[in-house]
Amino acid sequence: MTWAPTDRDSHDVDALVTDRYLETLLVAHARGADSGPAPIEADPDLRRTMARLARDLPRFHPSFRFEEALANRLAAEAAHMRASAVDPPAPTILPDGAIRIDAPSDIRLAMGRPLWIGGAITSAALSLAGAAFLAWRLRRPPASPMARAVRAVARARLS
Amino acid sequence: MDRPEEGGPRQTPLDRDRALVEVAQADPARFDALYRKYVAQVYSYAYYELRDHHEAEDATERTFMSALAGLNRFEERATPTDGEGASTFRVWLFQIARNAVAERRRRLRRRPEAPLDAAEMVPATIDVEDGAARRDDVTAALRAIGRLPDDRRRALTLRFIEEMSTAEIAGVLGRSEGAVRVLIHRALRSVARDLGDPRR
What we know:
The complex is a heterodimer. Helices cover 57% and strands 5% of the residues of chain A. Chain A is mainly α. Chain A has two domains: 9-56; 88-158, no CATH class. A three-stranded antiparallel sheet of chain A has the order 1-2-3, covered by helices on one side. In chain A, β1 (92-93) and β2 form a beta hairpin. Chain A is elongated and about 90 Å long. Chain B is mostly helical. In chain B, α2 crosses α4 (88-110) and α6 (125-146) packs across α9. Chains A and B meet through α1, α2 and α3 of A and α2, α3, α6, α7 and α9 of B.
């Protein structure tokens, strides 16, 4: 059985040869060598083009002002992330007896809205906290009309 | 489980940015070292894509803010075949940059503006340091690059300007290494024709 290269195979081989030549050219260019690598089978037109692009295409740099301003923004954001990780948000007790914990501003943890613990409990640990708080509230004698109203609502929900 | 003999991905200590990434993941304030290392590369890539300094700055800012926010989700995936100088962090960063640029381009398409001419992209210092002939060469090269279809221009820019390996470019563009080699080869043929045509 004989094998003949197709057009596609031929393109792949040409591309591979070009890639090998380009690799050696860019390494030589990075070293600051005056001349390119020893010519291999790569097309002479392509070799000239590669040498020209390696020489002529500039790398653009951002302005110093922009670079420093962005560095400051990143530092501020990093400090914010670190502070959020160290200090968990304090829960807020609401008049109706629910607990609200504001989600941290850390982008990794942010959920876009506050996390509510009350009627709907979201995790085992938070369930325990919610149940303990509810039991404490129910045992506590009424101290104000609002507290009495809260207890009445809680009793109505439990019955 | 790692089964490198089957050619599957595995973690290795090859990523040249591993140490910088690990300290930044432990303490976000240490992200600055990665930022300083790659800010010029990301900006240059964005500028070649968008051809506008303000848009390139905006894309660069979005790239690094997103990278900082998502750094703990980054997983090194270097393999022995990536070579000693490989950086999967850089590939990950440029994937973010590619998305940021694409978002800017979508916005620009909704609000069309005339793109800058290649001559306006040429750094002004070239006139002083190297003379008009050099400036013409740079302008012609930029113009030829600018005429390429998006995917070819992108591959060529990453190869020549960012000096990425074919494997890294494949990672950034989400294509196979063979496809990237063919893209670059075809791009070079187009540029060679363009630069050799006296009417251009």
